[in-house]
Design goal:
Length: 292
Amino acid sequence: MNEHEKYLFDLRGYIVVKNAITNEQIDDLSMRLETHRTKKNSFLGSDRTQNSEQDLTWTAPSMLEWGGCYIDLIDLPVIRPYLETLLGLNYRLDHDYIKIDSTKHNRKLYLHGGGQGAGGASDLVGPTDGGQCYYRFSNGRFFNGLVAVAFELNTVPLGQGGFACIPGSHKVNFELPSDWKVSNTQEEIPECVDRVAASAGDTIIFTEACAHGTIPWRGEGERRTIFYKYCPHAVAWSPCYYNSDNYLGLTENQKALLMPPSAFGPAPETKAIWEKAQAEQQELIRLRKIQN
């Protein structure tokens, strides 16, 4: 991050990185998305808080299963320096999903988060959205509990919808006023909210400590946004973890970013424990196949 970006992130709680993904990557991501979606899909992937009867105990569905550039996004070279600055060297991918907004799949603006890392007792995502969604800057370093990286597959013109936040709310000391939390239309949105325009290929990086949400869409076509969300290694938002055995073509660094949370990060000791857990899950899969 350059000095301008550091200043703006500390000031506002978000920055826009221009041209973070190429047209070729957009095409690959879009092609794989269309392969896995139906007309009813407006949310794909997983926030990794749900586990069906078919899922194994500590894992959940993920867009990483789609392969291609969805694997590349785990550790995109152009994004890596931002995450290292905002989270430190030992960080991990916590969860991923994609949101698709259109006039057919429209939503209210639900502002959540904010207030020194906590949205407050009545936060729309729940009071737990705060204990680890912190933000602070100390001794020349950023400290974030959860950082979101939003990759835009389509251009989001100003005023049409997309990402919104209250700039600076990641440092505020009061809970978001209740009458600002929900806006049914764009006309109801409080003036203090930033409406963030972005071009296809741009990436919005923001701290989850900032009060944020999605503006009701009124543009042409769709707004398709991929979210990869990262934590310091000792912090977790999701109760489900990744199992690198489920995804093809991972580099060693990508495998490290998918390890479950611990204070030690991807150290040899924790890697050995996790490899044993993965082997046990493979054995469970084998036994289930025999039973069926």
